[in-house]
Design a protein that fits this description.
Blueprint (H helix, E strand, L loop, with lengths): L1 E9 L3 H22 L1 E10 L10 H12 L4 E4 L9 H13 L3 E4 L4 E2 L9 H38 L16 H7 L1 H8 L4 H8 L3 H7 L4
Helix pairs in contact: 6-7
């Protein structure tokens, strides 16, 4: 039975991120079960897909792990979960390959390594194109966000009262809002999982976890 690890990455959007995080794990778990692959560890984080490797703690942990353990596969749902930056994505893929780990992308059923343990020219081309597309999508998202923000600033220039920036200084979340927003974190803490591990699973800062601990 081949041993595999899962690499999961979500955006920093809290509500969507929690759902997407679990969706990726569920999808990959089902695939591994059907292919008779043993999942030995999950590496995940809530971080921008454009972040450099040194800012991707889950990737750093993954690299350390595969260097000291015999792992056959690293499974992702799609290339954007590896990275949305071309150079970073290629660096991660090559690091996996150098350690004999085959990256499997579920959406294309694509393996990065051939039978000879090397990345084939065709696979390399496909990965480069998909990473380029992923990088382009990110740039388009940033462009749309910037256009929207600039449009809002123009409206605010004419009517600051009805177009404020940020939250009001008097704003404070209610207990109900905390319980709703951090329901996943509270559920994990009730199971006795440490704050550090909850932080790694959800991406929520330890300081915030200490604050909501009173609602257990």
């Amino acid at each position: 039975m081949k041993k595999c690890v899962l690499l999961v990455r979500c955006s920093t959007d809290k509500e969507k991120g929690l759902q997407d995080y679990q969706y990726q794990i569920d999808t990959l778990t089902e695939i591994c079960k059907k292919r008779d692959w043993e999942i030995v560890k999950v590496f995940g984080n809530y971080v921008s897909g454009a972040a450099a490797i040194e800012d991707r703690q889950e990737v750093l942990d993954l690299i350390d792990y595969i260097r000291s353990n015999k792992i056959d596969l690293c499974c992702c749902t799609e290339i954007s979960r590896v990275s949305r930056d071309l150079l970073t994505g290629v660096q991660i893929i090559r690091t996996l390959a150098d350690n004999g780990v085959n990256l499997f992308l579920a959406n294309y059923s694509l393996f990065t390594l051939g039978d000879d343990g090397k990345i084939s020219p065709i696979t390399s081309l496909i990965l480069t194109i998909t990473l380029e597309i992923s990088q382009m999508e990110r740039q388009q998202i940033r462009s749309r966000m910037e256009m929207g923000y600039q449009a809002y600033l123009r409206k605010r220039k004419d009517d600051k009262e009805h177009h404020p920036l940020g939250r009001p200084n008097t704003y404070r979340k209610s207990e109900e809002e905390y319980r709703s927003q951090y329901s996943k974190e509270l559920s994990l803490m009730r199971k006795g999982i440490s704050l550090r591990n909850v932080q790694q699973l959800t991406g929520t800062a330890v300081g915030t976890l200490r604050k909501i601990k009173i609602y257990l």
